[in-house]
Amino acid sequence: MSAAAHAARMDAIYAGQRHIYDVTRKYYLLGRDRLIDDLAPPPGGGVVEVGCGTGRNLILAAQRWPQARCLGFDISSAMLATARAKVARAGLDARIALSRGDATDWSPRALFGIEAADAIFMSYTLSMIPDWRGAIEAACDGLAPGGALHIVDFGQQERLPPGFRHALFAWLARFEVEPRADLPRMLEEAAAARGLSLAFTSLYRGYAWRAVLRRPA
């Protein structure tokens, strides 16, 4: 799927959903707040969210890490409209910058005018990006020395009842969300190719997977 086609599809799905997205997703997008607590950017550092959606996570990151500059982008113009409104209501326009971009083809310099990011995070985005492997590679390449890429997304429900897994995956498919079974292997390959360290954790009996890829200082 081309970037333009993916953008149009996301706009179509979330044109209405964006207005209730945060209320409904808080019950099953688990691990997001733990990820934000772990970002730990240096003073004055840049934090980038890939696929920022409604801006919910960026606002929390800006509040949790007031010394950082928070930046986010999304391929969906509809989601960005909601994000900009939420950021303005939170009074964080001066500390959060938003842009439209493709997760598989971006750089901190091209979108935000910075050389690299000290922390990049992807919260439940890889399961929605057709070229999710390319998105991981692009994010890894945007890291500054000592910087880290933080990921949380759906796992394979490996220690939960099979019926639960079947029902969840069927429901997610309605929104074109596909948990990535090959995520651990792809992360290992991306880390090895770039000399990054990798920490991988299964959360909530496999409901979610959490990973941190870190570039040496």
TrEMBL record:
It comes from the Bacteria. The keyword Lipid metabolism does not apply. Keywords: Methyltransferase, Transferase. Pfam families: Methyltransf_25. InterPro entries: Methyltransf_25, SAM-dependent_MTases_sf. Residues 47-147 form the Methyltransferase domain. GO terms for molecular function: methyltransferase activity. GO terms for biological process: methylation. Signal peptide: none annotated. Gene3D superfamilies: Vaccinia Virus protein VP39. This is S-adenosylmethionine-diacylgycerolhomoserine-N-methyltransferase. It comes from Sphingomonas yantingensis.
